[in-house]
Here is the input.
Amino acid sequence: MVRHLTIAAAQMGPVGRHDSRDEVVDRLLALLHESHQRGAELVVFPELALTTFFPRWFIEDQAEINSWFEAEMPGPDTKPLFDEARRLGVGFCLGYAELTPDGHRYNSQILVERDGSTVGTYRKVHIPGHEHDEPWRPFQHAERHFFEAGEEFPVWHAFEGLVGMAICNDRRWPETYRVMGLQGAELILIGYNTPLYYAPDPQQNALQAFHNHLVMQAGAYQNGAYVVGVAKGGLEEGVDSLAHTVIIAPSGQIQAQAITTGDEVVVARADLDYCRFYKETLFDFDRYRIPEAYRLITARRGAEPPPTVDTL
Here is the structure.
């Protein structure tokens, strides 16, 4: 059986602080329709697609915090997207802020199959930024104030393949891809919101696009998987954010890329069987990996230098 899958990376431009869910869902529906017209079977939307990137403000009012989160998925505002995708026979991946029934808050992505069934929900593991207000910054990056960390990188049987998900900062960590690679992942879906200005070290600003592609291309190549990285970019509430949405082949090559910073659909056809040319050769894990040599990766959290001669 040939396993071809046509994928649309549905980049979004800015979402304003006061934009309603209905307005945003209308934009998502327009992207969905364009993707369908171009033959897509799976549409990937960005991280926190339903709202502006609210962690740029340090908010303490509980009612306002709750207003950014979805207590159910689909809910009344998002049901039209789910219904239309099912009618069209198109699956999708959507990033949103999740509030669980028992009060936990996560930065999440949901994966939905072409028949409208929910495949699974992923919760962001690597939460960047800070827990407390940091007034010295030109804008906040308070994700650790709003979100708890997820605990795992699951892989699901979906779209005739093995599919995993990650969110934004997860893409910078090689463990993200390798844990999914060890489950045979053939397709990894990543949404992101990335400011072009990095307050802790502004010398990295000019390298944002380079680093963005570097980590995803490396993750694709070293694990023999397609990687789809989808941005919410442009100037949002005074903060300029990276676009550069891409679909990357298992070879690490960019197969398709966005050229704007606004709402834009990028489409590519993936051959999931092509993954085996890397999984069964250079990155034949069972043959070439040496887990005993990697013990520090799970045994130690932070970096520690080896003992000096004087302490031996």
About this structure: The longest helix spans residues 21-37. The chain has one domain: 4-283.
